[in-house]
Amino acid sequence: MKIQQFKKLGNQNWVSLHKYENSLNNPLILVLGNRYQLEKTSLLSEIRELLPNGEIVCGTTAGEIIGERVYNDSVAITAVEFEKSKFIIESENILTHNMDALTLGAKLIDKLPQKDLKHVFVISEGSFVNGSALIAGLESKYKNVTFTGGLCGDDARFEKTLVGYNENPKEGEIVIIGFYGDSLDISYGQYGGWTPFGPERIITKSNNNILYELDNQPALDLYKKYLGDKASELPKSALLYPLSVKSPNRKEAIVRTILSIEEENNAMILAGDVPEGSVVQLMMANIDNIVEGASQAAITGMSNRSAKPELAILVSCIGRKLVMDQRVEEEIEEIIESIGQQAVISGFYSYGELAPFKTGNSCELHNQTMTLTLFSE
């Protein structure tokens, strides 16, 4: 595995951070950056000057992770040449098809050949897609394949997210990267660290990822009551108080964040499904617990590995970033301490994180969670 990394802060010049001295052969080029930076039409040509060949996957973020640092208003490039294995990239746009996320996910995964497929990394639009339905569609065909990834971000603006494959990124795009080969050692981990508080309530009315009623009362009214003065800052303020959702079909609680609100329906649109009958409880942050959560995610990722990771792709939540503020890099430092200095670090802060629980291979949509995918050949 050969890796090159570059970063660009604002309007400054590109800086090489982790550079393999020779040119890479058909690398996977992962480009993660602030939405305003990725909207610049000159970006692709700038990348081609740095990396003349390879497959470019772009995604907007709520913060860029490269090395031990977290940046804003930047673009971070990680280019990876797999020497003993291969990858295949496919994409679809949910806005150009008359289908929901479940159907699109199934259509997308059907494009990847099954033979020797080991893992799929997902980079999805994040402002309106139902992440739970997308995962269900992706998992509908290949039951023994694992999935990780994230929903792209747009800082705390929640205006739009952009994804692109070998073209300027655009709204509605979903990209999957299939990894092939017995030589690949891929592992993953996830953990939150948020603390539940207040009374438990039952979801009495919902539709997929839209929450209408808790205990037969309008959900948005109840939520605003808890937020108090912060209610006027919705949906941004919701990142500080996510929901713990315990549903009958899951062994572990899922954390859900509100993406947007519908005042006219007194409803909240969440990043993933919130089934009726689930038990909901508000959650709040303790920074030390959140940092410890990142450490636990790394420990999980390292638990079944046969070799030290060469590459780590981290996907963490914008809510964690807002809460930790100036301490945000502590969770990156905890991960590096667990996985080792030899691993090249890349990643982003997202609107939703994709990874299986520790106890199984089935992927879940998480919010307010640190996830990591570790690679070696």
Tell me what the structure shows.
The chain has 377 residues and is an alpha+beta fold. It has helices at residues 35-38, 43-50, 101-109, 131-138, 219-227, 287-302, 318-324, 329-339; strands at residues 2-9, 15-18, 28-33, 55-60, 64-66, 69-71, 74-81, 86-93, 117-124, 146-151, 163-165, 173-180, 185-191, 195-207, 210-214, 217-218, 243-246, 254-256, 258-262, 267-270, 279-284, 311-317, 344-350, 352-356, 363-366, 370-376. It has two domains: 2-191 and 288-376, no CATH class; 203-284, no CATH class. The strands form four sheets. Strands 14, 15, 16, 17, 18, 19, 20 and 21 form an eight-stranded antiparallel sheet that branches. It has a six-stranded mixed sheet with strand order 2-1-7-3-4-11. Helix 3 (101-109) packs parallel to helix 4 and helix 6 packs parallel to helix 8. It is globular, with a radius of gyration of 20 Å. The relative contact order is 0.17. Residues 26-218 form the FIST domain. InterPro entries: FIST_C (IPR019494), FIST_domain_N (IPR013702). It comes from Aquimarina celericrescens.
